UniProtKB/TrEMBL annotation:
GO BP annotations listed: DNA transposition
Gene Ontology molecular function: any one: DNA binding
InterPro entries recorded: Transposase_11
Transmembrane feature ranges: none
Record-annotated Transposase IS4-like domain positions: 9-140
Lineage: Bacteria, Pseudomonadati, Pseudomonadota, Gammaproteobacteria, sulfur-oxidizing symbionts
Name assigned to this protein: Transposase IS4-like domain-containing protein
Pfam families, A to Z: DDE_Tnp_1 (PF01609)
């Protein structure tokens, strides 16, 4: 009898994103105005960014007037109000209203938020994929 044991990642989870199933982890990266990474936190892929929004905003610190740029996963009235309460500028990408066209200005705004920082990190530094197995190792790679 041959027993094969696969290296199962206990912390990794499945998620469905952009029409594809993905197994692994998701990282939330905090950068400064120049695009340099301040801090990164890694979670299982099926964890919603909404549950970690407050935690990620606290990474910014008490810097009043700083813009918090975030993707559409955190677009909600409650998160916008939380930023205003901490005197931070709302840089959360806007979602397209259901059944309506997104304005040209909102499209440009969303592109300006994401492309500059994260496009470069994914293209140049390979931030989209990890070579390691396990939550701690993946977190240290980011």
């Amino acid at each position: 009898m041959i027993v094969t044991q696969f290296n199962i990642q206990k912390d990794a989870r499945w998620t469905f994103k952009a029409g594809k199933y993905t197994y692994g982890y998701s990282s939330v990266v905090t950068t400064n105005a120049n695009g340099l990474i301040n801090k990164a936190t890694t979670h299982p892929a099926n964890d919603s960014e909404m549950t970690h929004f407050e935690e990620n905003v606290k990474q910014v610190g008490n810097q009043k007037g700083v813009s918090v740029l975030y993707d559409k996963g955190a677009a909600s009235q409650a998160n916008s109000e939380a930023l205003k309460a901490q005197k931070l500028r709302d840089g959360i990408m806007r979602k397209k209203p259901k059944g309506k066209q997104m304005s040209h200005w909102h499209k440009l705004r969303n592109k300006a938020i994401s492309k500059r920082r994260f496009g470069t990190l994914k293209r140049t530094y390979g931030l989209a994929r990890s070579c390691y197995i396990g939550l701690e190792k993946v977190a240290s790679e980011v």
